[in-house]
C-alpha cells in the first residue's frame, strides 16, 4: 500500500478503523524487522560457520583443514612450556655454617690428641686407649699413627686438612655429590708425597668422617625459576586461515582435540555462543544505524511500509547471493546492484547509505576481505553517482561499465601496494570488470519487477509511459485526437508549473497524458473531439449529459487498472477534476426546470477525491485553464492572465486545493507560468493578403 492509499484509508475510516489500521501497520513493521533480522542472522551464520570433517585419530586429512578463527594451541603451548621448565637448573643455597662445624670437629680431634700426648710417661698404647671414645670413627691403627707421629707433622697435616676441606666446601657440596667429592679428596691426598702412606690414609679417614654436604636445593627459588621459564613461553596461536592439518597429515589426538574445540568435527554439535552473539550485535547495529539514518534524513520513509519492505528485500537478496557467488569468485559479488536499484527506486542518498550496509555485510561474509569491502564501497558509490538523472535504460549498462572500471582500478591499486597476492591477477581483473556488467544486468532485469510490485514510478518508467507509441496513447490519438492534443498541451503547462515550484515535472507530464483516457469510451461526447459534427448533448437531458461527462473519471480508472498503469498515474485520472461542478449542465438543468431550486447540485459534481498532491492539483488547474483559454475569442496576455487568475481563485473558493499542500506563493508562480506559456501558444498572427499566383507567374516579386 502506498502512502497515498494509506492516507485515504485513514482519512475515510472511523477512529476505531484508524486504530486497527495503525495496529496492523505496527505489526507489519515488527514482522518485517523480525524477518530481516532472521534472514541476515542465518545468512551470516551460514557464511561464518566453519565446515565440519569426519575424521578420527590416525586417519589422513583429505584436504587442508584451516582454522576458522584465532585459537591458542594448548597442547603445543604446554609442550613448549614443559620443555622450558625442564631446562631450568635447580637452584641451590650454600650453608656457610657447615664448614665451621667441620673445622670444629677436626680441631676437637687434634686437640684431644695433643692433650693426651702431653701427659707424662704415656705410651702410644695408652694414648690409643684414651682416644678410643672419639666420635669420628677412626680405627685403632689410625689412632696409633696419630699417637706416634711427631707433633709438628700432625700440625702440618691438620693445616692441610683445613685447606682441603675449605677448598671443597667453599665450592659447595651437594648431597648427591658427597661420595664423588670424597673420592676426589682421596685421589688428591694420595698425591701428597710429603706424608707417609699410613698418615695419608688417616687424613682421608678424618676428612671422610667430618666432611658433609653444605649446598642444599632451594625449593622456592627453583620453583620461581621454573615458573619464570614457563611464563616466558608465549602461547602458540593458530590464526584464522592457518592450517591445523595439511592434506595427507595423520590426525593426532591433540589435533583432533583442537578441531573439536573449534567445532570442526562432524557429528559433535557445539553451540558457538560467541559467534551467535557477535552476529546478533552486527545485525542489530546495522539495523539501528539504518533506522537512525532514516529518522534523521528521510523521516517520511519511516511511515511508508512498502518502501521499507522494498529496501529490506533488496538488501536481503544481495546478502543471500553473496555466498553462492563467492564460491565461483569473490570478485563477482554484485554489491553495487543494490545501490543502483535503490538509487532508481527510492533515493540516491539513501542508496549510498544502503550500499555501505550491504558492503559491511558482504565483507563480513567473505572473511573481512579488505579488497572486497573497498570494491563494494567504491563500486557502489560510482554506480549511484552514474545513475543520477538516468532516463534511459541503456544508461544503466554504461553505469555497469563504470562500476567494472572502478573495480579493476581497486584490484590494480591493491596489487601495486602489495595487498593483493594472487597468481591469477588477470583473471581477477576480468572478474572485477564483469562484476559491473553483472550489476547492470541484474538492475535492468529486476527493475520492472520492483516497479510493478511496489507501484514505483522511476524516471525510466515515466519515460516509457510518456512514449507516444504506448498502446493507450496510440488509441487516444486515433480515437480521440482532440483529447490527445489537449492532453499534450495540458502536460506541457503542468510540467512547467510543477518545475517552477520544485515538484516532479516528469511525473505530472506523464500523468497529464493519461488523465483523460476515460474519454476513449465515448470520445464524441466531448467537445474537443466534435470536429464538424453535431453535439450529441443537444438531444440529451442535462442530468444524463452530466453523468456521461463526470463518468469519464471512473471509466478512465477502469482502463488504467486494465492496462496496469501505476497507482501514481491513476491518481491524476481520479483527482484531476476533484469534486468540481459540471457547471454548464448544472445551469442548463436549472434553466430548463420549472423548479430550479430543487435541482441537486451533487448530481452534477465529480466524485473526487480532491487533489492530494501538488502535482495532481497543478494538473487540475492546467486542465481547466487550457480548456477555458482555448474557448476565448481574441485572447491577449492580459485577458489570459485574468482568466487564469479567475480559474485558480475559483478552485480555491470551491475547496479543491485544500489537501494539495500548495502555498499561495506557489500558486502565484503557477499563475505566472500558465500565463507565459499560454500567451506564447495563442500569440497574435499576421494576416497574409490574398494574392493571385497566376498573375505573379513569371514576374519577379
TrEMBL record:
**UniProtKB keywords:** Membrane, Transmembrane, Transmembrane helix
On whether Isomerase is a keyword of this UniProt record, the answer is: no
Q: What InterPro entries has UniProt attached to this entry?
A: HD/PDEase_dom, HD_domain, HDIG_dom, Metal-dep_PHydrolase_7TM_extra, Metal-dep_PHydrolase_7TM_intra, PgpH_phosphodiesterase
Any Pfam family = HD
Q: Superkingdom of the source?
A: Bacteria
What sections of the protein cross the membrane? 26-48, 273-296, 308-333, 339-363, 370-390, 396-417, 429-450
Q: Which SUPFAM superfamilies match?
A: HD-domain/PDEase-like
Q: What NCBIfam families does its record include?
A: HDIG (TIGR00277)
Q: What is this protein called?
A: HDIG domain-containing metalloprotein
Amino acid at each position: 500500500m502506498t502512502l497515498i492509499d494509506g492516507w485515504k484509508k485513514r482519512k475515510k475510516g472511523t477512529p476505531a478503523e484508524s486504530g486497527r489500521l495503525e495496529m496492523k501497520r505496527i505489526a507489519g513493521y515488527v514482522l518485517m524487522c523480525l524477518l530481516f533480522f532472521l534472514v541476515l542472522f542465518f545468512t551470516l551464520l551460514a557464511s561464518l560457520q566453519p565446515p565440519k570433517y569426519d575424521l578420527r585419530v590416525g586417519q589422513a586429512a583429505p584436504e587442508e583443514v584451516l582454522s576458522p578463527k584465532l585459537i591458542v594451541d594448548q597442547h603445543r603451548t604446554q609442550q613448549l612450556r614443559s620443555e622450558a621448565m625442564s631446562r631450568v637448573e635447580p637452584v641451590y643455597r650454600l650453608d656457610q655454617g657447615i664448614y665451621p662445624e667441620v673445622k670444629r670437629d677436626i680441631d676437637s680431634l687434634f686437640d684431644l690428641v695433643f692433650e693426651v700426648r702431653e701427659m707424662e710417661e704415656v705410651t702410644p698404647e695408652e694414648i690409643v686407649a684414651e682416644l678410643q671414645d672419639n666420635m669420628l670413627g677412626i680405627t685403632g691403627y689410625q689412632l696409633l699413627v696419630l699417637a706416634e707421629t711427631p707433633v709438628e707433622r700432625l700440625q702440618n697435616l691438620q693445616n692441610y686438612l683445613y685447606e682441603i676441606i675449605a677448598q671443597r666446601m667453599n665450592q659447595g657440596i651437594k648431597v648427591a655429590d658427597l661420595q664423588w667429592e670424597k673420592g676426589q679428596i682421596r685421589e688428591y691426598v694420595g698425591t701428597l708425597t710429603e706424608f707417609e702412606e699410613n698418615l695419608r690414609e688417616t687424613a682421608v679417614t678424618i676428612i671422610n668422617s667430618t666432611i658433609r654436604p653444605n649446598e642444599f636445593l632451594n625449593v622456592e627459588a627453583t620453583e620461581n625459576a621454573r615458573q619464570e621459564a614457563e611464563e616466558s613461553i608465549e602461547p602458540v596461536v593458530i590464526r584464522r586461515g592457518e592450517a591445523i592439518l595439511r592434506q595427507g597429515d595423520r590426525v593426532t589426538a591433540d589435533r583432533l582435540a583442537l578441531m573439536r574445540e573449534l567445532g570442526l568435527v562432524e557429528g559433535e554439535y557445539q553451540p558457538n555462543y560467541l559467534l551467535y552473539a557477535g552476529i546478533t550485535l552486527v545485525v542489530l547495529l546495522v539495523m539501528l544505524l539504518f533506522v537512525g539514518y532514516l529518522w534523521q534524513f528521510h523521516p517520511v520513509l519511516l511511515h511508508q511500509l512498502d518502501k521499507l519492505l522494498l529496501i529490506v528485500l533488496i538488501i536481503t537478496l544481495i546478502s543471500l547471493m553473496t555466498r553462492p557467488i563467492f564460491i565461483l569468485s569473490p570478485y563477482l559479488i554484485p554489491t553495487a546492484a543494490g545501490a543502483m536499484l535503490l538509487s532508481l527506486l527510492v533515493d540516491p542518498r539513501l542508496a549510498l547509505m544502503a550500499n555501505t550496509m550491504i558492503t559491511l555485510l558482504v565483507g563480513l561474509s567473505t572473511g573481512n576481505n579488505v579488497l572486497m569491502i573497498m570494491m563494494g564501497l567504491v563500486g557502489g558509490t560510482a554506480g549511484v553517482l552514474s545513475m543520477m538523472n538516468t532516463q534511459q535504460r541503456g544508461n544503466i549498462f554504461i553505469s555497469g561499465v563504470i562500476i567494472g572500471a572502478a573495480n579493476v582500478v581497486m584490484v590494480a591499486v591493491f596489487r601495486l601496494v602489495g595487498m593483493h597476492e594472487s597468481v591469477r591477477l588477470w583473471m581477477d581483473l576480468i572478474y572485477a570488470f564483469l562484476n559491473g556488467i553483472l550489476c547492470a544486468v541484474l538492475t535492468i532485469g529486476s527493475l520492472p519487477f520492483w516497479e510493478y510490485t511496489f507501484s514505483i514510478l522511476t524516471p525510466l518508467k515515466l519515460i516509457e509511459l510518456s512514449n507516444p507509441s504506448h498502446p493507450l496513447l496510440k488509441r487516444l490519438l486515433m480515437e480521440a485526437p482532440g483529447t490527445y492534443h489537449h492532453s499534450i498541451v495540458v502536460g506541457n503547462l503542468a510540467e512547467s508549473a510543477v518545475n517552477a515550484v520544485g515538484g516532479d515535472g516528469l511525473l505530472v507530464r506523464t500523468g497529464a497524458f493519461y488523465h483523460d483516457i476515460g474519454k476513449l469510451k465515448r470520445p464524441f461526447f466531448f467537445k474537443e473531439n466534435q470536429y464538424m459534427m453535431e453535439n450529441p448533448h443537444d438531444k440529451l437531458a442535462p442530468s444524463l449529459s452530466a453523468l456521461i461527462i463526470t463518468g469519464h473519471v471512473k471509466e478512465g480508472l477502469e482502463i488504467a487498472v486494465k492496462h496496469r498503469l501505476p497507482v501514481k498515474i491513476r491518481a491524476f485520472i481520479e483527482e484531476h477534476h476533484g469534486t468540481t461542478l459540471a457547471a454548464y449542465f448544472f445551469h442548463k438543468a436549472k434553466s430548463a426546470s420549472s423548479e430550479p431550486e430543487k435541482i441537486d447540485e451533487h448530481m452534477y459534481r465529480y466524485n473526487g477525491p480532491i487533489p492530494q498532491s501538488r502535482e495532481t492539483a497543478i494538473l487540475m488547474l492546467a486542465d481547466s485553464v487550457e480548456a477555458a483559454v482555448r474557448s476565448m475569442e481574441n485572447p491577449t496576455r492580459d485577458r489570459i492572465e485574468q482568466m487564469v487568475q479567475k480559474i485558480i481563485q475559483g478552485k480555491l473558493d470551491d475547496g479543491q486545493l485544500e489537501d494539495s499542500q500548495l502555498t499561495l506563493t506557489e500558486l502565484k508562480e503557477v499563475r505566472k507560468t500558465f500565463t507565459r506559456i499560454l500567451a506564447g501558444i495563442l500569440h497574435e498572427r499576421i494576416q497574409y493578403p490574398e494574392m493571385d499566383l497566376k498573375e505573379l507567374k513569371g514576374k519577379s516579386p
